[in-house]
Amino acid sequence: MASSRLDKWLWAARIFKTRTLSAQACKNGRVMVNGALAKSSHAVNTGDKISVRKAPITFTFEVLMPITQRVGAAKVPEVLRNITSKEQLEYLEMTRIGRNAVRDRGTGRPTKKERREIEDYMLTPEYSGESFDGSAFENEEDDFDFDINDLPNDD
Fold first, then answer.
1. Contact call for residues 58 and 25 (beta carbons, < 8 A)
2. What pLDDT digit, counting tens, does each position of 64-100 carry?
3. 37 touches 50 (CB < 8 A)
4. What is the rounded distance in angstroms from the CA atom of residue 8 to the CA atom of residue 78?
5. Which of 44, 62, 95, 144 gives 20 to 30 Å between its CA and that of 50?
6. 8 Å CB contact between 48 and 26
7. CA–CA distances in Å: residue 131 to residues 3, 136, 140, 142
8. Model confidence at 125, in pLDDT bands (50, 70, 90)?
9. Residues 56, 95: contact at Cβ < 8 Å?
10. pTM for the full model?
């Protein structure tokens, strides 16, 4: 019976983009074979159940063919069968939908409209520092105990 290394099979079956990533997942305890944690050198055989924890869910696959050479995406169904539970797949779909949910106004980056309003506000002479002589405060009622025009100048 043919077998292959776990990290190599995970890479060849297109579960991870690189063999290094698959080996790291094994090292970090994110991969189980038949319910037991497995090292990257573990031999994979036909019929093995492999569980891979990739945030936010745990994918479960059944090995149909232990391979060592990477296959095209069209041939992946010949190599493995996805037996991930329906609850896990529904949870994955809900998290994908949740990422595109409406954000509360004022959180994150400003929208293009908000950015333009900020730029317009900052370019007004009173706030940009251009020709500031205190005249912006003359007609405003303020909370000071004194008149701002009575302050000595540094000139």
1. no
2. 999 999 999 999 999 999 999 999 999 888 888 777 6
3. no
4. 17
5. 95
6. no
7. 79, 10, 18, 21
8. low
9. yes
10. 0.64
